[in-house]
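Hi team,

Filling in the usual template for the complex we talked about on Friday. All components are listed, including any nucleic acid strands or ligand strings, so the model treats them as one assembly.

SUBMITTER: L.P.
PURPOSE: interface mapping
COMPONENTS: two
RESIDUES: 465
SEQUENCES:
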Amino acid sequence: MNNVKTGKSSLFLLLLAGAMMLGTLYLIFMWVPTEKNLGISQRIFYIHVPVAWVGFLAFFFVLTGSIGYLFAVKSSNNQALMSAKSWDRFAYSAAEIGVLFMTLMLISGILWAKPVWGVWWTWDPRLSTSLILWLTYVAYLMLRAYSYNEDQSARYSAILGIAGFINVPIVYLSIVWWRTVHPQVLVGPAASGSLDPSMRMVLLAATATFTVLFIYLLVERMSLQKSEEQMEMIQGLGRTE
Amino acid sequence: MVSFWHTILALVWKDVLLEIRTKDIMISILSFAILSLLILNFALKPSPKTASVIAPGILWVAFTFAGVLGLARTFALEKDQGNLVGLMLAPVSGEALYLGKMLANLMFMLIAELALLPIFAVLFNMSPFQPAFLLVVFVATVGFAAVGTLFSAIGVNTRSRDIMLPVLFLPLVVPVIISAVVASSIALDRGPWVDMVKWIQLMLVFDILAVVLSALAFDQVLRE
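RESULT (copied from the run log):
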């Protein structure tokens, strides 16, 4: 019953994300004017920024899921343990999708940096922090994969999910300071504050689209995770008999 | 409160006694650190002119990787002999277990670092024995030990423990490494104290956060 409901709402989300994606692609490639200084390559901006936003949102979800899990697992009644499981599913699924979007963000950023800045990579605070964040959550997924059992992997990764997120502002600050020790002027669209209204509109549309896509993926991943757990439970029951 | 610190002292003493008898951790940290200095020296070829720029970086790479190795040993020793289960069964709070283990790790790392400094001084023609620099080493090592103890306890309980500790540990200690490198290059150049203060403050904030959060989380790490 529950799965049927998830199936329906996720189908709706899929159709919505698909339709929005078509509209967004039209806006990005046909409708929005080309940027004067940066030329055609600036259009990657409408993918890069929303993808980055989804990545950060996903890691924030990992943080909430991790905190929720650690609180729920402390109490011993059955209801709380069930909710602990769903918090954990939420954190794990968000982490996986977050790493995916963070990877896309890094790749699109690298591709964009070459024509605009002339280099693939600079050790700018935002770039460096994103890379470290990405490495932290890759470690999170590795920790999941290498744990001995579900319960242990949930506890360990919840700790990492919280520690990794708290670390972000400290990493950012340290790199900002470090850059001022070795000054290098950064030029580019990121430096300028204002955006043309039509460009802002497309950016907002693209952000909304990618957020819907993210929620669709999250719902699907969580229901897949739940099915996996149920299957493991059934297999475990079969083994004991 | 008295018994809390007594417990911690007992835990530290257990590790110290074990280390005096085996010299396992100290030897692995020191030999690896010396080898790192050597390899990095060949890789980067510091001349008298560039030495003051790259030497602090070389030193902290050596400290970091040797530290990872030492941290991995401390919990591997507990795990292999089944002592970890004993500690978990002991009527001791997770906070005390964490602090005991962390202080022991901190002590081993500091002693190894102090032993490494004369070698560093000779190889790179530096004078590291000055209060400001030693303070930087101390504050940074507290951060390493605080995060490292938590993640070596986690890493040792996973299937591929040799790789898990560095993979978890290194991204998180990036702020400490950056601060330590910058602050020590200022200290070694005998630069003004005001330039160093913010880095030391940043490391202190990191240390406090790391110790408090790890101590709180340690119960969850050791539960079976």
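MY TAKE: Helices of chain A lie at 2-31, 45-74, 78-117, 125-146, 150-181, 197-240. Residues 182-192 of chain A have pLDDT under 50 and may be disordered.

Thanks, L.
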